[in-house]
Amino acid sequence: MFIGHFGLGMGLKKTAPAISLGTFFIAVQLLDLIWPTFLLLHIEHVIIHPELSGNRILEFKSYPYTHSLIGALCWSLLFGGIYFLVKKNGRNALILGLAVFSHWVLDFFVHFGDLPLLPTDNSTHVGLALWGSPAVEIVIEVILFVAGIVLYLRSVQFKNTLGKIVFGVLIALFVLVQLSSSWGPAPANETALAWSAQFQWLFVLLAYWVDRNTLKTA
């Protein structure tokens, strides 16, 4: 699940036009934005299987703090709480908190039973394994992505041509990264994977740039 998360972020703009698209992107992808740093710090771990293909390349050996059910709930409360303290808007804080938790929910549908419920070594792990049916999984992702684009475009009006261009670049980058992750070579090692995953912050920066060049219509 990659473009599906970001698609949901774009779609949520309709529910809270005052929230920047960049902030929505941080929310829906927060668990995966933190995860690479936890890999670099050797707090969490992943095993790479270059001999396999598709979604089976990565074996998520340990990510109790970013991807456990309890961990996801804590990050949701933290993110929503910080937004509330800064903006004093309870409704939008709740929306962002739910956006953070949506990441775990979507991952639950696709992961191979590797999501821990508790941030402990002996926790029960869950996942409905839609990654085992790649055609079904990609259709769901594309639907979320396209629906998100449509809802976002209905929520804003571009102030200038620059906004349209940056938004087009953003969408093109999403597609390129999705294709690369699906059919590209496996990362050389855990460290290389972690550094490449930091590339996701570029989407956040571009989203803030896009939003600065739009008018809210919803």
From TrEMBL:
Determine the domain of life of the protein's source.
Answer: Bacteria
Q: Which InterPro entries match?
A: YdjM-like
Q: What are the UniProt keywords, alphabetically?
A: Membrane, Transmembrane, Transmembrane helix
Query: Transmembrane residues, as ranges?
Result: 21-43, 63-86, 93-112, 132-153, 165-186, 192-210
Is Kinase tagged as a keyword? no
Name of the protein in its database record: Permease
Q: What is the lineage of its organism?
A: Bacteria, Pseudomonadati, Bacteroidota, Chitinophagia, Chitinophagales
